[in-house]
Amino acid sequence: MNTDMDIDINTVTDTITCRLVEARADLGITQKELASATGISLKTIANIESKQHIPSLLYAMRIADFFTNR
Hints:
By secondary structure, the chain is mostly helical.
């Protein structure tokens, strides 16, 4: 079943990855610094950026909060 509401997971993953890498670059922070500031493991941050992991809602909110409060 294909509806207008279907989500292409590859598009979502690409968008999250691209936005996260760009946002980190804009602030000039490392993956390690982001991991420390959000309480998310460095491995998970790296996996999100390399499209091996889609962040859970909790992690997405932590990451969004970090960048929103900058």
